[in-house]
Amino acid sequence: MQIFNSGLFWFIEGILFVFVVLGMGAWARDRGLRVPVWKWGLFMIWLLLAGFTIAFVGTSFGEGESVAGTRGGLLFGAITIIAGVGLWRVLLAGAEPGGGDVVSEA
Amino acid sequence: MSDNESKNDGSGGPGGGSDVNRRDFLKLAGLASAAAGGAGLGAFGYAAGKDPNTYLGWQNQEGASLVFNRKRYEVDEPTYQEVGPTSRPDARVEQIFERRGRFMREYMRLRGGPGPITAESFPEPLRSYYLAKPQDLDLDILNTEELQPLNRADAMEYSDPLILSQAWSAAMGAVGPGPINGPPEVNDFPRGRGGTRPEPMKMKDPAKTAELIKVISMQLGSTLTGITELNPDWVYGYPIRGRGFEDLEQPLEIPDWWTYAIVVGTPMSWDPMYANPNYGTSNDAYSRSRIIAARVAAFVKALGYPARTHTPGTSYDLIVPPISIDAGLGEQGRNGIMITPEVGCNFRPAVITTNLPMASDKPIDIGVDDFCLHCKVCAEECPSGAIPMGDKVEVRGYRRWAIDTAKCQNFWTSTLGNMGCRLCVSVCPYTRKANWLHKTAMKVSANDPTGLSEKLLTSMQKSFYPGPDPQDYYMPSLGGANASYREPPWWLKTEDFIDLG
Amino acid sequence: MNRPSGRFLRFFVASVILAGALAYGWTHNAPDFVTPIRTIFPESQRIEVRQGVHHVWGSGGTLIGWAGVGTADGYGGPMLLVVGIDTLGLVAGVQVVEQRETPVFWRMVRSPDYIREITGAQYNAIDYDYESVVAVTGATLSADAIVESLRVSVAEVAGVAFDVRLPLPPRPLEFGILELSILALFSIGIIGHRLRGPIRRRLRWAGQIVGLLVLGFWENSPITMAKLAGILSGFLPDPRTALAIYLLIAGFLLTSIFFGRNLYCLYACPFGAAQRLIGAIGGFKLKVPLWAVRFMEGTRNLVVFVALFLAFLTLQPALASYEPFAALFALHGSTVQWFLLFIVLTVSLLIQTPWCNFFCPMRTIELVVLDAKRWVKGKKGGDR
After folding, report:
1. Which of B387, B461, B463, B474 best tests the C interface by mutation, with the highest count of C CBs <10 A?
2. What's the number of CA atoms in the CB half-sphere (13 Å) around residue B293?
3. B316, B426, C71, C345 - which has most CB atoms within 10 Å?
4. What's the Cα-to-Cα distance from B276 to each of B280, B281, B484, C37, rounded to whole Å?
């Protein structure tokens, strides 16, 4: 547990989070998508949801509560997947007229 | 591309707009982030220097267990209500251990005599009590006649796997309650030279004294400390044995130096607690609370003030849970005991009564009352059915949840676990370790005015944290399977350390 | 004409086997009355049923009392209570013979409080205090069932033993938001069925949301195999308290027969609504190859048959429930049902209503009903 208390771990997680966001930005640019601020907000909320799901499962198994880990994983996992697909479609709906760097088929 | 080119060059990206705006924004954001990040690191550094968790070996003494900010939840009135004319409990019959002690002495005499044993067979005050509550007479007899012999028989046959658990419980119980040297006017006061009473020190400010007592009690081992004025309704109407009162049939007159109550205590060890009833024990928290109370009383006496300890398991002149609630440590739960925000039901307090002038803490409201209305997990899991599924009731003028102590204690005799059951503590959604998940759930439930989170959290509790069928907790001769709520920690698994043959 | 008669044959054979299982279940799972009666009357030597009431004799052939048996509807199925009344007219004891409640509730009923309160009471002065039973058990529906059952059995005994007719007050009809919503949903369905275009679509979506929220998350009362199997087994819940299930099943059957399409599935079922909602989020609508569809439908029909067979054989309707509805709407279910729920919900992103099409027993029942309708019409010589 010490490693997670040291602060260095979260520092690195923060940097990784930034890379995820930059990556999403690059993907959106390739697809020629407009991503207004509120869509960024949805994306970050979804990242928190996905992170919560993973951390929940880990914490439950760490506590020795395998039933909680399994069922919670299934419940929050289903919500994360469905919300993720929904978010994906919301993002795809923001295609720039006139296309972007790549001619999109959307 | 120069800065002056127009926007419509086909390279629009996220955020839209021109490259110029985006670059400026990013520059500004970078600068602001550097400032904020730097400030954060500075703050982190300062906190790391002060962090109680770095006082290795003394973490809790330095306040590491104070993970919940109670100030936000303070209210003027506790969440139980005074609804009618109040009275003090008659411990001779209402305190289960005292009553059963008196019952046993009479019953052993009456047994084998002619005619059936009824309420009328007993002397007062048992007689009136059993006439009013015939079910308790049945349950008291059942405990003596049937449950205790069955328990002894089952213990002979099935206790081997519990050897380590029993050893641990006995070890924790090796420290008993402090001695009571005579009646309160003798026992409670510090003794000076030549047997005189020393002059109490002049304390500057009750608020500062309260702070002092709290930090001292923490240094002396207490996990949570609260201070309140003592409500006389919580003091027994008649004393119980072992407290230095000579005549137990004389009403207890509350000495005028029992003005304030300091509540101290610790939780029980977590992993054995989750493996109740077989692997947990009350002794680990009892003995530590006794030691802390004795130390705090000694400190108060050293300041020249009287101090009297009231400690678990049965060395009290008062009821501790409502005093703890008055002192702002938690709220009453459906299982009758106090639920705290930090450790849930897992807290075994002791009280020190004194007239050292201290400022009182205010009671808190963290949503327990509302949560317990709908949750009922403890009532569903209780093997004896002692915890009510229904509404609060009125007891001696207060509206509160009341359990059936006779049924509860009968279950203690119906299991092979150490001195009791404590399942309601283990299954309560509030009794959770202090990791991010449970701390967040607790804060959400305490701050949600709609009650939706309570319903969702209760459903998740019942679905994600299942336990054995309540019948299974019983010992085998009563149709059970000696089950425990969770697996014991590795260090209590007897079969791994001792050759059971 | 090959296929219809092949299907007809399979249906006929399946029905015969299921009827046989039910017959076996009823005869071999007959409740044991002797043990509870002996518990109430420890000195009993002979027990005989006369005029529908168990008569109990002690040593020397003296009549020591009577036992009345009542049925009551609980959450998990019917309960049978045995009430013993002695020759003085006092309640000698109460025993529960057969129950399908959850274990928690069962322990509460065993707890002495309520039983103690009425034991020793005069048979015509029993306090049927509903509130105190609730306080013991906390499960209002089943508490009501206990009180009702006690009333009925005591009345039976009173009639035969003492020739007294005890009053049985009528129970009020429960009709609230749930029942109203069901009627509203079927009405929307009937109207929507006749319309076309955007109005129909909006009406359907409005209905889906109402169904999902009320029948789903609020009340958790879709049609389930357990309820259906219970009714088919002969355990008919009291329509005054269980009106909702009767409305749903009636709506299901009648709309299938008169509209050719069952409007329960399309408009009322909350689990269908959940899948359609997720499908709208996913927006995929993949096509499933025909061979897979046929295979899944065949498996589904087989599973329905096996579930009913087991439920009938053991006379335990709850065994037939393999749906994961409760896991979604109330977080109740076994780990298997949770996995099933996860699969169904995520696959709903890709395929239209996978549970409805490939797993739901109601689809099988609907096919049976439609086949029967067609067969009847065929017999009448009419043309579809």
Report:
1. B463
2. 33
3. B426
4. 5, 8, 5, 37
| Interchain contact, A34 vs B433, CB within 8 Å | no
Length of chain A: 106
Report CA-CA distances (Å) from C328 to C142, C216, C343, C349: 23, 8, 12, 16
Determine the Cα–Cα distance for residues C332 and B95; give it in Å rounded to an integer: 39
3-state secondary structure of B339: strand
Considering the domain boundaries, does residue C28 fall inside one?
no
CB-closest option in B390, B460, B470 to C331: B460
CA distance B481 to B276: 13
Total number of domains constituting chain B: 1
Residues composing chain C: 384
Verify whether the Cβ–Cβ distance A56 to B435 is below 8 Å: no
- Residue B426, both tokens: 């283990």
Instruction: For residue C59, give the 3-state DSSP assignment.
Output: helix
Cβ neighbors of C117 (< 8 A, separation 6 or more) are: C127, C129, C132
The answer to whether the CB atoms of B389 and C137 lie below 8 A apart is yes
Query: Do β-strands B226-229 and B260-266 pair in parallel, antiparallel, or remain unpaired?
Result: antiparallel
CB-based contact, B393 to chain C, within 8 Å: no
Residue C96 · residue C84 · CB < 8 Å: no
Q: Are C78 and C51 in contact (CB under 8 A)?
A: no
Looking at the structure, do residues C106 and C65 belong to the same domain, yes or no?
A: yes
Mean pLDDT in order along chain B per 10 residues (501 residues):
45 56 86 91 88 90 90 94 94 94 93 87 94 90 92 94 94 83 90 85 96 96 97 96 92 96 97 96 94 95 95 93 97 96 96 97 94 90 86 92 92 91 96 93 91 90 90 88 95 94 78
Enumerate the domain spans of chain A.
Answer: 2-92
Chain B residues with beta carbon closer than 8 angstroms to that of A42: none
Structure tokens of C92? 């000698």
User: How many other β-carbons are positioned within 10 Å of the β-carbon of residue B282?
Assistant: 23
Assigned domain for B54 exists: no
Quick check: B376 and C107 CB within 8 A? no
Mutation site for C-interface testing, chosen from A71, A89, A92 by largest number of C Cβ within 10 Å: A71
Q: Which residues contact B211 (CB under 8 A, 6 or more apart)?
A: none
Total domains in chain C come to 2
Cβ of residue C203 closer than 8 Å to a chain A Cβ? no
CA distance C86 to C43: 12
CATH no. for residue C110? 3.90.1010
| pLDDT(C382) > 60 | no
Cα dist. B344→B293, B328, C184 in Å?
A: 21, 14, 45
Q: What is the pLDDT of residues C257-272, one digit of tens each?
A: 888 888 898 888 999 9
Chains A & B: contacts with CB separation below 8 Å: 47
CA distance B71 to B68: 9
| Contact with chain B for residue C177, Cβ under 8 A | no
What distance, in Å, lies between the first and last C-alpha atoms of chain C? 16
- Strands B331-332 and B338-339 turn out to be antiparallel
Residues of chain C positioned with their CB less than 8 A from the CB of A67: 335
The verdict on a CB contact (< 8 Å) between A68 and B435 is no
C365: containing domain: 2-23+174-379
DSSP state of B196: P
Helix and strand numbers (H, E) in chain B are 18, 9
Test mutation, A40, A43, A65, chain B, max B CBs within 10 A: A65
Q: Are residues C18 and C69 in the same domain?
A: no
ipTM field: 0.85
Give chain A's contact residues with C (Cβ, < 8 Å): 67, 70-71, 74-75, 77-78, 81-82, 85-86, 89
Q: Which of C270, C221, C268 is nearest to C243 (CA)?
A: C221
User: Are C211 and C287 within one domain?
Assistant: yes
